[in-house]
Input
Amino acid sequence: MNEETRNLKMVLGYEGTRYAGFQRQATGILTIQGELEEALSRLTNETITIHAAGRTDAGVHARGQVVNFHTQSQMPCSKLQQALNSLLPTDILIQKVAEVPLVFHARYSVQHKTYSYRLVHGGLRPLFKRNFVYYYRHELKVELMQQAAELLVGTQDFATFQAAGSMVKTTIRTINFCKLVAEEAELLLTINANGFLYHMVRNIVGTLILVGSQRLSITDFKAALAKKDRSSAGPTAPAAGLCLEAVYYKKME
Amino acid sequence: MNEETRNLKMVLGYEGTRYAGFQRQATGILTIQGELEEALSRLTNETITIHAAGRTDAGVHARGQVVNFHTQSQMPCSKLQQALNSLLPTDILIQKVAEVPLVFHARYSVQHKTYSYRLVHGGLRPLFKRNFVYYYRHELKVELMQQAAELLVGTQDFATFQAAGSMVKTTIRTINFCKLVAEEAELLLTINANGFLYHMVRNIVGTLILVGSQRLSITDFKAALAKKDRSSAGPTAPAAGLCLEAVYYKKME
Output
């Protein structure tokens, strides 16, 4: 790296519906990373590799994904943002570009992240929000789900909610808040944590649905969490309801 | 028609993005009417023809479109609704089905209708709402547009806002209300009238944008309306911002 290298941080949103996920895959497979790197490489005449705070799965959305990349380009941040937003497909939007210290890494520097999950229960299937919510045909007992959600707050071993076969050093994470809010037939779960295991939010939602449909009591929900075993939790809720809302970093001097 | 014929009224919503418009066209062209008639014909084993309150154009949406059709089928309304919603694509949703008197006609019985038009002005292009708003890159003077919108209320000749080449008996219509509301960068125009000329709302919006960008004064807007001539109005605003919100009928005994 020569001394002109800049480290740029971008905040972006996207609708994940059309994409095979964030992470770049083989040529011909549509990914957010692929689209971003292609546009950036065109604009800078360099081969750009980006790092993302969270590599969201196929169909998962973002309102506040964060990425960073190194470049020799001296293009002003606002101009880069404008040029990128012209080049990118309309379902990806760069909300902010800023130069940051070279040590900043969108994934390793994360302090905590917020995910949301949207669910419509009972009534007719959703129309305009159909790609952004999971439609659950039956009515759910929201109060029970809210009680269960509260139990997840704190520093705990969340192995129960980790996708089977995951390999991580530790399954202990700190959930800072986990709130379920109901607005008519729409439920919005917001979870902030210092880290998320693979499929953690979707497995939590799948298990909360068991609670809301009274197939799992609050006592059994507690027991399932304590068991640290994926098979004691509910199914993985669909991707469409999930959205990476925001990523938080330590203020860098 | 034998004495078992029923007249069914349906209220429905749809996202118009994928469709060539409401009205059925040649085989192979995707239309709302085509999808509805195909699903209804399959369910009833009859050849069903539907009539709609408003035949929305390509890309135009509906939250409260109304249609009616005659059928010999004795299937209960709630069952028909459920079956239709299973058969139809996810961007069309039947919200209500009810049996009505045989004389009811979704178009000829209309008393008044409400359309909305959504506009984002200035700032970044919209992401999640991109198919439901028109993005106008520059900031608009909202107060001027609101003043102009007010001038449209009443029984007037709206020939200025009718698409060139339209053939109708009269271009006089009554606008009951025409309100422009701003919520941050998003503008929402809501118009209720006893009838709409072809492209009337989109031509009104195109002209209001001229006012908001100070290329047309309020005085000139008044003069344009008085001129009854399409060429004195602004361009036709894009379809995506338009939505048929509701249709109102006289209560039938």
About this structure: The helical segments of chain A are 32-44, 77-87, 142-150, 200-212, 218-227.
